[in-house]
Amino acid sequence: MKSSEVATWLDEAEIATALQNSSTPDAAHVEDIIQKSLELNGLDFQDVAVLSHIRQPEQLQSLFDAAKRVKETIYGRRLVLFAPLYVSNHCGNECLYCAFRRSNTALHRRALQLDEIRRETEILVDQGHKRVLLVAGEAYPAVGSSKGLDYIFDAIRTIYEVKNGNGGEIRRINVNIAPLATEEFRALKETGIGTYQLFQETYHRATYAAVHVGGVKKDYDWRATAVDRAMEAGIDDVGLGVLFGLADWRFDLLGLMAHIRHLEARFGVGCHTVSVPRIEPACGSDMAATPPHAVSDTDFLKITAILRLAVPYTGIIMSTRENADTRRATLELGVSQISAGSRTNPGGYAESLDQTRDEDAAQFQLGDHRSLEEVVKDISALGYIPSFCTACYRLGRTGHDFMDMAKPGLIKEKCGPNALSTFLEYLLDYTKTETRTAGLSAIDLELADMDGKVRRLSERMLERVHAGKRDVFC
Ligand code: SAM
Ligand code: SF4
Description:
The chain is of the alpha/beta class. It has 21 helices and nine strands. The model has no long low-confidence stretch (mean pLDDT 94).
């Protein structure tokens, strides 16, 4: 086996030592780390170990305050919105926490036909979505004339083909599918995806082996080295994640840091996003009902805040696994992308229109059942600017280029105007009086807070959207 096929960068002894040495952190040292994070250069592995052990309420408050400051400095008030699109729940693996696992006979299996994928996309487009996250189990049954991975490629093409007039279209597809070989990643890149997302679930090898008991996914290293192959294949926006609740969260947070450190050393750029899913109840899974290392709400907020300080330019994604209150709390601490109006069963969007529910085909239970419009209303009332922007990857601002722009704060000059123009497009095309009025006031408030040059650019872009132009971005 070549070293690139083994995750040699994950050194369990290093993590254990770092956690042991930081288990009773000195207050002055904690404060130094928090102050250092405000310089926006991120934190290292040892710093993260120290922060993971803080318990005193005043230290926790100081951590949360710093996360809020970092988030506001880099991201301003914008929040990117997306919806997952589950195309198939067939799976050959045995992940004990997941409803899609092969042996779960309680699950209703379904792989959408291409016309069903088109229908799901049309529904999301009609709600105003511009970004989707395509999700599938790891088995691609023959669907029509599409076989194997071609099914996923055909699904991507089908989603991009939907055009419902007046800018109604999906402009960025991110994907969360099983690890591929380098050549397959090259073909995936050709389909025009945005981010390739893959969660290691847990970096703890013994736990990984205990919860992945069958199928290709048993191979820890094949999964842990997958984003290396994706980056070798030219996919330079990758998303990492941990499924919190499987192993000790401090261990997994440091595992994630080691993974990011490896990518930075090897490719000069870390991950574009991190996701922080917690295990949710799932049909036919005892483990999902009582996770072995359930993460408390306070620790969950701590994880989000530490990540915001540790990797300030990496997007943090919060899904609808969490309920509305937890989601609101994490927005302040650093989350920059959220899903809304989600369904985790293939065909779930069409079913919700027909008022039928096939919960027996869903991956896990949702914590937030609100529609996109309800979420938009809620977050704009909290002072955020919902963004449907997809400009960066379409202008080639990915990987290094994105980080080169993000680091000096330049991205804010692009993201701010793009958030406003795409939010206005959403308000004009998909909302009625109440949401629209609240949204237009939020745009005015945001404009009033912008510096001269960025404000003038935003105003010009907004004028074009008001005049009927769509997909206006810089
Ligand atoms: N099948 C592919 C894989 O496992 O990488 C990709 C799709 S899988 C449906 C996406 C993610 O769902 C997994 O990586 C896992 O972290 C998450 N997941 C599985 N079961 C879950 C549960 N009960 N609660 C929350 N998230 C879960
Ligand atoms: Fe399959 Fe992914 Fe679920 Fe595991 S997590 S059973 S690989 S869909």
